[in-house]
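Q: I'm building a small set of examples for a reading group on sequence design. Run inverse folding on the following structure and report the sequence directly after it, with nothing in between.
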């Protein structure tokens, strides 16, 4: 059956990592969409990549290709060129800042290539830079994996699940090609960016720090992306540390990498270590009275995964207010926010003392997720946009 005769698209998922592929597959299955998954990890040559992709496209005859964070593309641009020659639409859904990835890839000037971005703030910069068309697509919850258990036995009062960003900070600094004598300078930039209302780093340095602007402009694209990553991750680390430190009087559990030990010291807190996303986190969330959330500085206006996963699991979430939050949840009824670190302590005390109110908010948030924020909803949005832009079945 040709695509013109079908009511729904046939989608080929491609990636060199299994990152979020299970969630996309779950979304396809929930909608009854024909789909296939081509894993491209471990391919050793351009010839092997081209042959593998060609064989699967010929076999499955997809209407479009879908990947995450460009992870299904090669750096040299062979996959992009293949799609251009075949006039085969290709969508990459970014769930991190696009500008941290785009400089690493070639041959992206392609009319068949389009982007979805989890942060609405990223749509206009892509358009201004002459990149492919883009549309906003927030994160979601995979309800095929996350089950709602609202009456789980509480095992802890307060917890934060998150990365310390130490390893990411060091990795980006090493790739930035900046001399070590400038590290203190860029640490200062990160601290000021974290405290600023400006959401985009380039706009922040353009307005606030001419020296930083000049240093960025003198970088080649890939080192500049690494330098930006360093600032975003260091700013995130500083912000997270400041927020988590306000929780220490509640003797919180902090789940994440081992760098938290040196960052938080010997105060009254418990280190839970890393938790497995699929097998550990839902139970952890639902058995915590107050799940604390603080958003990464790479996404100052957007919503991270915890905003969806905590209430989907049956847990209560206290999160920082973000500009895109009211469009997704009703603030005060479906989600509770703090606007400044000074508010955190009082909010934690209030909700520790009011379990019925916590439960009501979690139940309402879960209902909103079921109605609007599953990966089936996101796949439906993807299909509608691909039909609008390329005429594929929807």
């Amino acid at each position: 059956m040709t695509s013109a005769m079908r009511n729904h698209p046939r989608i080929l998922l491609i990636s060199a990592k299994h990152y979020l592929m299970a969630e996309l597959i779950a979304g396809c299955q929930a909608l009854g969409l024909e789909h296939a998954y081509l894993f491209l990890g471990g391919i050793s040559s351009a010839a092997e990549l081209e042959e593998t992709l060609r064989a699967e496209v010929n076999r499955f005859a997809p209407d479009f290709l879908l990947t995450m964070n460009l992870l299904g593309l090669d750096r040299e641009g062979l996959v992009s060129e293949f799609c251009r020659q075949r006039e085969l639409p290709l969508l990459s859904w970014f769930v991190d800042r696009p500008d941290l990835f785009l400089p690493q890839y070639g041959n992206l000037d392609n009319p068949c290539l389009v982007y979805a971005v989890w942060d609405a703030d990223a749509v206009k910069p892509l358009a201004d830079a002459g990149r492919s068309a883009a549309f906003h697509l927030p994160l979601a919850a995979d309800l095929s994996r996350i089950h709602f258990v609202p009456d789980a036995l509480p095992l802890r009062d307060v917890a934060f699940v998150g990365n310390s960003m130490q390893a990411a900070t060091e990795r980006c600094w090493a790739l930035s090609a900046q001399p070590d004598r400038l590290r203190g300078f860029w640490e200062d930039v990160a601290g000021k960016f974290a405290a600023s209302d400006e959401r985009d780093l380039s706009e922040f340095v353009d307005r606030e720090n001419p020296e930083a602007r000049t240093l960025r402009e003198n970088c080649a694209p890939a080192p500049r992306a690494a330098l930006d990553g360093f600032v975003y991750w260091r700013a995130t680390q500083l912000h997270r540390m400041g927020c988590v430190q306000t929780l220490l009087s509640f003797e919180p559990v902090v789940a994440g990498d081992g760098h938290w030990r040196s960052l938080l010291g010997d105060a009254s807190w418990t280190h839970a270590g890393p938790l497995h996303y699929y097998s550990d986190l839902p139970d952890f969330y639902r058995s915590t009275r107050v799940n604390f959330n603080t958003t990464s500085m790479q996404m100052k206006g957007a919503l991270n995964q915890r905003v969806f996963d905590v209430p989907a699991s049956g847990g209560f979430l206290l999160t920082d207010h973000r500009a895109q939050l009211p469009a997704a949840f009703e603030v005060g009824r479906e989600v509770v926010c703090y606007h400044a670190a000074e508010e955190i302590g009082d909010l934690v005390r209030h909700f520790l003392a009011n379990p019925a109110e916590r439960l009501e908010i979690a139940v309402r948030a879960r209902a909103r997720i079921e109605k609007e924020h599953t990966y089936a909803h996101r796949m439906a949005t993807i299909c509608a946009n691909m039909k609008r832009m390329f005429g594929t079945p929807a």
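The CA atoms of residues 54 and 322 lie 43 Å apart.
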